[in-house]
Design a protein that fits this description.
The structure holds two protein chains of two kinds.
Chain A: H1 6-21, H2 43-57, H3 74-89
Chain B: E1 4-5, H1 16-26, E2 31-35, H2 43-50, H3 55-74, E3 86-92, E4 95-101, E5 108-114, H4 124-127, H5 130-137, H6 144-161, E6 173-175, E7 182-187, E8 190-202, E9 205-214
Parallel strand pairs in B: 1-2
Antiparallel strand pairs in B: 2-4, 3-4, 5-9, 6-7, 7-8, 8-9
Classes of the chains: A mainly alpha, B alpha+beta.
Chain lengths: 91, 217
């Protein structure tokens, strides 16, 4: 998968959340919106989100090592799974 | 051990005999309510929901309030309050289910309903341990979604039943015997709680209930 810009990754995450969740209007989903607490996506859909993050990032996720707080919002997902790597790749 | 259905007019998602089985499996008296509408909620609750742009979320929230109200109206002969009852709510498709108990046995209660879809087989590694995954994926391909969904709803109910579940997720809860549709479970790294669960097969999914109690295993 080609290297994506931060804006492209955030847009991809936002579009996935809105489509998969089917519960929220696009205007309701900001990058800091709590996705699970606000019931934008269900806990079952979190499993699909993890698969999507793996495809988007190329990472393999081990939930045994995962702090659930990183799945709170698009901001936290980006920071945890993409932020440092993206900074490295664009340096 | 009796289970009281909160409203004889609620949709028959569950047969009465099944409701008794849930209470026997989790070891305490429980009250269930199933709703498909928000009928019976207060005007202020409707006003709160009206502010949300998403009709889907608005409707499911109102169904949840209606279901909880029915449970509280039935628990302890209508004398229960949200402050001392343990309650849990789950939404799936057109249904919302609420469950409550005032039993001293239960530190917490959890319910999960899924009638629409099962977890992807690729996602099993995210929420199942090795034993659970082996049982789910050793089934013929056609049966795997049912097993995955049963385990998912059990784990979600276990998570919800833990009143101190902050910092935990569904993958932290382990079934002692994943082949059983009712039994006991534990929380990784915490031997101070005993969890009992029961999974009920529905026409198009599963409903699982879990209760957490104190005491060493």
């Amino acid at each position: 998968m080609p290297v994506k810009t931060e804006a492209e990754i955030r847009r991809a995450l936002r579009e996935w959340v809105i489509k998969a969740g089917g519960q929220a209007q696009p205007a309701e989903v900001r990058d800091d919106t709590p996705l699970i607490e606000s019931r934008i996506i269900s806990s079952l859909q979190v499993m699909d989100l993890l698969l999507f993050i793996e495809r988007l990032s190329g990472l393999s996720i081990d939930t045994g090592e995962l702090d659930v707080a990183v799945l709170r919002s698009i901001d936290t997902i980006y920071d945890h799974f993409f932020g440092a790597r993206h900074a490295d790749s664009t340096r | 051990m009796p289970t009281r259905h909160a409203d004889t007019h609620t949709p028959r998602l569950l047969a009465p005999a099944t409701e008794h089985a849930i209470a026997d499996a989790v070891g305490c008296d429980v009250t269930l309510a199933v709703t498909t509408t928000g009928d019976g909620v207060s005007p202020s609750e409707r006003a709160t929901a009206a502010a949300w742009p998403s009709r889907t979320r608005r409707d499911s929230w109102l169904r949840g309030r209606a279901a909880v109200r029915r449970v509280l109206d039935t628990l302890d002969g209508g004398g229960a309050t949200a402050g001392h009852a343990r309650l849990s709510v789950s939404h799936s498709g057109a249904y919302t289910v609420a469950i409550g108990t005032t039993s001293r046995v239960a530190r917490g209660i959890g319910v999960d309903l899924e009638v629409r879809r099962a977890p992807a087989a690729d996602a099993a590694r995210f929420f199942l341990n090795e034993d659970e995954r082996r049982w789910a994926l050793e089934a013929p391909a056609a049966d795997q979604p049912k097993r995955l969904l049963r385990l998912w709803t059990i784990k979600e109910a276990l998570f919800k039943s833990n009143p101190s579940n902050q910092g935990t997720h569904v993958w932290d809860y382990r079934l002692d015997n994943p082949e059983r549709s009712w039994g006991t479970a534990s929380l990784r790294g915490d031997q101070s709680r005993l969890f009992r669960y029961c999974a009920v097969r529905l026409a198009a999914g599963y409903l699982s209930v879990a209760v957490s109690s104190g005491g060493h295993r």
